[in-house]
TrEMBL record:
Transmembrane segments: none annotated. Coiled coil: none annotated. Residues 38-99 form the ANTAR domain. Residues 1-25 are annotated as: Disordered. It comes from Nocardia tenerifensis. SUPFAM superfamilies: GAF domain-like, PP2C-like, PYP-like sensor domain (PAS domain). PANTHER family: STAGE II SPORULATION PROTEIN E, STAGE II SPORULATION PROTEIN E-RELATED. Residues 492-544 form the PAC domain. This is ANTAR domain-containing protein. GO terms for molecular function: phosphatase activity; RNA binding. Keywords: Hydrolase, Transcription, Transcription regulation. The lineage of its organism: Bacteria, Bacillati, Actinomycetota, Actinomycetes, Mycobacteriales. It holds the Pfam family SpoIIE.
Length: 801
């Protein structure tokens, strides 16, 4: 304690001296004496509290001796002192042992179990501490005092510095009823935790299990107390019901604790549960018996309801719920009268409640935690003559004190159909109406107010005023509808544009029919409006799309027709065979049957001024008019370049420049060969194209795969040349991939089949090419081009082409 700056010094004494003066030694002595007095009084209060706790234990032991020895209180006190002196222990320790051996109340059982599980053998101090805490619980009747006693006598030796005891309410909120080691200001901030707020205590209550947080600094769960160390939240329950949570705080992080410590805290939590139960019983006594109030509430409901109370077995464990009351609207699913259900155990009356639907587990959870359970679609099953009967229902289970209220509503077919109709109207943007002609009463569905852009509180618009809300261009379309409906008294429908008050225009379809009385007069008009704006704009978009698609199809067909004509003009399907210098050349060209897949395959065979014979085959990538025009460019360019006398490799280099620079995105494969009739040597090169097939003496082989990439891929490249010495009766086959490729095979398998077919060649060269086309099993819908070269006995005079 320190002196304040505003402290007034005492007056002077009668002899003229001053008892205390500012800054004098006498002032310091007085302050020290006051501090010593305060400290002495504090120790006396603590000793008095400890003595009171000890006396409570002694008084309990004296009561045991009075009952056992049939003596008075004074004799029991002397006997306790005598027994303590003989045992060599203090009277408080002997009193704790007597209570341990004699007490059979629920709290004493909990403490005894705690000691057996956690205390070391011969540890009498632990027994004294626990019995002291127990006596404080029994004597105080105050949860706050219980928290202080539990911290001082049981948890402080474990290193804990703060304790909070939470009470769980029926609305799933938490209230701080007791605390120790926590400042009053902090406790005031946390005196109430609303439902749904995530805290360690809330999590322990919901999960019905202990929650350990080794380091609060890394946890996202807030809670009472300033500790940034470890924290534990243990559910506190008794009799199958969770009444609250015991929360313990440590000043520093902890390693995972051994099972012994966990069992200690669980036993202490159960000890705290009895204090919470006592407070709850006191609160209930102040407001009357809750089951009676709950019975009156159940009888006021229009749905079937059961009032359930817990049923415990001999060991005090929750085993079932007894049906305390069935309300007046109760209807048993099995058709039993109320008298057979009222008063029975729940699982005996409804054994299927423990089955698939897990209704019994829901009731247990609600009773334990106090949280309300509600679902709008669950299955309730009951046995009727040993046959399961399952119905759909909305179910509500809530806890009220020591009782549980269970209410259900069976799914009604009429209500279900009404809900389906509402959903159908909402999804279909349909609104219904009814207009009574005799009273003028108009009934609109909610969707119709939304369709008109009106608030639900607005007055419905009668049919007689419909024309005031119709677009001017659609008025003449609505007049016949009203005439047919009102004058001819016949059902009618029409579509129009509705102008809403907010200026938005909606496309509407309306259909209505008159309701006639026996005399044929109109009694009412019923009908429906449907918003078809989305459908209208979809139809407009589809119409525009169809127009564009039709134009595209016509354009594509014209392009295909032009490509086909160009292809047929340049590449006839079966040109006449060529005989030159003992060399016979035959060609077969088979275009695809689909016009939109017209390709760019080409072939060429001609005698050059140098008397050499040019043979080439190529394939343009792609289809249509672009491929056909690219084919014409490359074929004619190769013809012109071949007149220079260059070799096949050089010709392909120049043709690559043409494809890369002088055309737009043209890529092609090709084989180019120059045959010298004097030496019978064929010089050839390839640009990414399949190698030719040589048939000699009944054997078919593939020529080497010379290096050379496809035309147009790069600006400059070179192509490897090869030479082949042909012999009499040799046949060389050049082809495009449309002859061999299949979608379900790799290319090597396709080439192997071509070699097998070519090895069986018989007949003339034309017969052999026809045989290749006839036995082709390609399925890529591509053009096919085949060029055959057959060497004769010797050079001859060239014939006209």
């Amino acid at each position: 304690m320190t002196a304040s700056d505003s402290y007034d010094p005492p007056p002077a004494t009668g002899d003229g001296s001053t008892a205390m003066g500012d800054g004098s030694p006498a002032a310091g002595a007085v302050v020290e004496r006051l501090a010593a007095t305060v400290e002495r009084l504090r120790r006396q209060i603590q000793q008095a509290q400890a003595s009171a706790d000890g006396r409570a234990l002694i008084e309990l032991a004296k009561g045991v001796l009075v009952e056992r020895l049939r003596c008075g209180p004074a004799q029991a006190a002397r006997q306790l002192d005598l027994l303590a002196a003989r045992a060599g222990v203090s009277p408080v320790e002997l009193a704790a042992d007597l209570v341990n051996q004699t007490a059979r109340d629920q709290v004493s059982v909990v403490v005894e179990e705690f000691l057996l599980r956690t205390a070391a053998p011969g540890d009498s101090s632990a027994a004294v501490r626990l019995r002291t805490a127990e006596s404080g619980l029994l004597a105080a009747g105050d949860t706050h005092r219980v928290a202080q006693s539990v911290l001082e006598h049981a948890l402080a030796p474990l290193g804990a510095t703060a304790v909070a005891i939470w009470s769980a309410s029926a609305d799933a909120s938490l209230s701080l009823l007791g605390y120790a080691g926590i400042s009053p200001q902090e406790a005031e901030r946390w005196h109430y935790v609303p439902p749904g707020v995530a805290t360690p205590a809330r999590r322990a209550l919901v999960e019905r299990d202990a929650i350990w947080i080794e380091d609060s600094s890394v946890s996202s769960l807030p809670s009472v107390g300033d500790s940034m160390g470890a924290r534990a939240a243990i559910p506190a329950g008794t009799g199958g019901r969770l009444l609250g949570v015991l929360e313990v705080c440590w000043p520093r992080p902890l390693e995972p604790q051994p099972p012994r410590i966990t069992r200690q805290l669980e036993a202490l939590a159960e000890l705290c549960a009895h204090a919470l139960e006592s407070d709850l019983a006191t609160a209930r006594g102040s407001r009357g018996a809750e089951p009676a109030d709950l019975v009156r509430l159940a009888d006021s409901l229009f749905d079937p309801a059961l009032v359930l109370v817990p049923h415990f077995d001999a060991a005090g464990t929750l085993a079932d719920f007894r049906i305390h009351h069935v309300n007046t609207c109760f209807i048993d699913l099995a058709g039993r009268p109320r008298s057979l259900v009222d008063g029975a155990l729940l699982l005996e009356a409804y054994p299927m409640a423990a089955g698939e639907g897990k209704v019994f587990e829901r009731i247990e959870h609600v009773f334990a935690t106090g949280e309300t359970y509600r679902t709008y679609n669950t299955s309730l099953t009951e046995l009727v003559d040993e046959v399961p009967l399952t119905v759909s229902a909305a179910l509500s289970i809530s806890c009220h004190g020591d009782a549980v209220l269970m209410v259900w509503r069976l799914e009604d077919e009429t209500m279900r159909l009404a809900e389906l109709l509402q959903h159908a109207q909402r999804l279909g943007r349909v609104g219904g109406f009814e207009e009574k002609t005799d009273t003028g009463e108009i009934t609109w569905s909610r969707q119709l107010f939304d369709l008109y852009g009106l608030s639900p509180a607005a007055d419905p618009i009668p049919l007689g005023q419909l024309l005031d809300h119709v677009h001017d261009d659609d008025v003449e379309a609505v007049r016949p509808f009203l005439l047919t409906l009102l004058q001819y008294r016949t059902s009618a429908s029409t579509t129009f544009r509705l102008v809403r008050p907010d200026g938005v225009t909606r496309h509407i379809r309306v259909i209505a029919e008159p309701v006639l009385d026996p005399a044929g007069n109109i009694r009412a008009i019923r009908g429906a409006y449907q918003d078809i704006s989305s459908q209208h704009w979809t139809e407009v978009a589809l119409s525009a799309t169809r127009d564009r698609l039709e134009h595209t199809e016509l354009h594509a067909a014209e392009q295909s027709r032009l490509a086909r004509q160009l292809q047929q003009a340049i590449m006839p399907a079966a040109p006449p065979s060529i005989d030159a210098f003992g060399l016979r050349i035959a060609v077969r060209y088979r275009p695809t049957e689909q016009d939109h897949l017209v390709g760019g395959d080409w072939y060429d065979a001609m005698v050059l001024p140098s008397k050499q014979i040019l043979v080439s085959v190529g394939d343009i990538a792609g289809h249509g008019i672009t491929a056909a025009t690219g084919m014409v460019v490359l074929r004619n360019a190769l013809r012109g370049l071949a007149a220079t006398g260059a070799g096949p490799g050089q010709l392909l280099e120049w043709l690559n420049l043409v494809a890369h620079h002088l055309t737009e995105d043209t890529y092609a494969t090709a084989v180019c060969g120059l045959y010298d009739p004097q030496t019978r040597v064929l010089r050839w090169a390839r640009a990414g194209h399949p190698a030719p097939v040589l048939v000699r003496a009944g054997q078919a082989t593939l020529l080497p795969m010379l290096d050379g990439i496809l035309l147009g891929a790069v600006s400059e490249t070179t192509y490897e040349e090869g030479e082949l010495q042909l012999e009499t009766d040799d046949t060389l086959v050049l082809y495009t991939d449309g002859l061999i490729e299949r979608r379900d095979r790799n290319l090597d398998e396709c080439v192997d089949r071509l070699l097998a077919v070519s090895a069986r060649f018989t007949g003339s060269l034309d017969d052999r090419l026809d045989n290749l086309l006839d036995h082709s099993d390609a399925n890529t819908d591509d053009d096919t081009c085949v060029v055959g070269i057959q060497v004769g006995a010797g050079p001859a005079t060239p014939s006209s082409r």
